[in-house]
Amino acid sequence: MSRIAFFTLNAYDMLTGGHEGDAVGGAQLQQILIGKELAKRGYEVIFVEYAAEYKKEQRIDGIKIVTKPRPKGSELSRAAKAVVGTLRTLRRIDPDVCYRRVLDFEILPLSFYCSLTDTRFVYGFAHDNELTDDSTFFSKGVKQTSLYRRLNQFAISTADSAIAQNAYQYNIATSRYDTDVYQIPNCYQIEEVEPIDWDYESPVIFWAARIERVKRPKTVVKLARKLPDVTFVMAGGPGNAELYSELQQEAESLENLVLLGHIPFEEIDRHFAAADLFLNTSEAEGFPNTFLQAWANETPVASLAVDPNEILSSQGIGLFADGSVETLCEEMRDVIDDEELLSTLGQDSREYLHENHSVEAISEQYERVLLGEGNGLTDS
What is the CA radius of gyration of the chain? Predict the structure, then answer.
């Protein structure tokens, strides 16, 4: 069977359920779910991780963990070390297929190595903004330069295949790149969980994400002020320390705003299950894993600006405000006390997840793309 290498870099903590030293999120979760399923099917699945004192090279749930040095020094120095470290790791593991999700320096050596060998290279778009020409998406320093963006675009263009999460990504990617592009949504496993016992007398709207500007957590503060009879519970680690501190101060001054901080992945479903609504306030995302987590726990989604493939607006399983805070506030006010409507929306959400985002079905599509067999859904 083929040897498939996922350059996850930061998935170890979520995979092992132990240490929480790395910033983990949706990209790591999807690779873990798909990696485990492919391992069950007999493939040699390798996760390439940044080395850390607590990370051990071992096999977990059929996935072999291999570590490579985390580059240190200046930005240019880190970039050079990342290239060297990745090439050495590739020679060591000798994969048949390489997969990378999230733009960074890693895709440059992956592109180079796979172009010179018979190794397939598949890139997965993690965020809608990866297809933008807006330099503000590329952080700061070298990553904001046009050279860096052109190198990234060139590396993606050398991929044998690329995977888009939604129609927006698919349409732009197919117009920009000659490589085969496939549209495959995210997946999630439905499991029964015991809702956390929240001692709130009012309805609860749950928000979960890393505390960063792009997630627009300050919008939750505005909504909490507009809906004083609803409790807003926020979960997320300090991606932006200054912003996190500001939210802590806001939570102390508002009785109906609670900031929980980081919640371990193995406990987060209990929070989704206990909420009446899940709230998303992000500027843009690919296909939010939090939508899937909410649906799996029969919790309807209320979204300010993100509606991948127009699912919320076309399937009738949630609220979509098309960017308007006022509209979002009004729609949440209308449904939050209607237990029968919330129950119906929740049940329909879970059914939609079961029919369209099962781990088995989505992994089968990934399997075909990774092996170069297509997935039959290029134009979906």
Answer: 21
Report the percent of the chain where pLDDT is more than 90: 77
| CA angle (19 as vertex; 205, 51 as ends), nearest 5 | 125
Confidence (pLDDT) at 379? 45
Encode burial over 247-281: b for 16+ CB neighbours within 10 A, e otherwise: beebbeeeebbbbeeebebeebbbbbbbbbbbbbb
Q: Does position 202 have pLDDT exceeding 90, yes or no? A: yes
Q: Show the tokens assigned to 138.
A: 């590329």
Q: List the one residue out of 174, 178, 158 whose CA is nearest residue 166.
A: 174
Q: How far, in Å, CA of 35 to CA of 28, rounded?
A: 10
Chain centroid offset of residue 92 CA:
29
| Assigned token pair, 116 | 């010179």
DSSP secondary structure of 291-338: HHHHHHTT--EEESS--GGGHHHHHSSEEE-TT-HHHHHHHHHHHTT-
99/4 Cα distance (integer angstroms): 8
pLDDT on residue 19: 55
Phi, psi of 128 (to 5 degrees): -55, -35
What pTM was computed for the model? 0.87
Residues of the chain with pLDDT > 70, as a percent, come to 94
Is 70 exceeded by the pLDDT of residue 53?
Answer: yes
Distance of CA 350 to the CA centre of its chain: 19
Integer Cα distance of 152 and 251 in angstroms? 40
**Measured between alpha carbons, how far is residue 251 from residues 220, 232, 260 in Å?**
10, 10, 10
Sheet holding 44-50, edge to edge: 59-60, 63-68, 44-50, 3-9, 97-101, 120-124, 161-164, 180-183
Quote the CA–CA distance of 111 and 172 in Å, as a whole number. Answer: 21
The kind and range of the H/E element at 127 are none
Please, which residues have CB within 8 angstroms of residue 140's CB and are 6 or more apart in sequence?
none
Q: Is 176 left (phi over 0), alpha (psi -120 to 50) or beta?
A: alpha
Alpha carbon distance 42, 52 (integer Å): 28
Say if strands 120-124 and 97-101 run parallel, antiparallel, or are unpaired. Answer: parallel
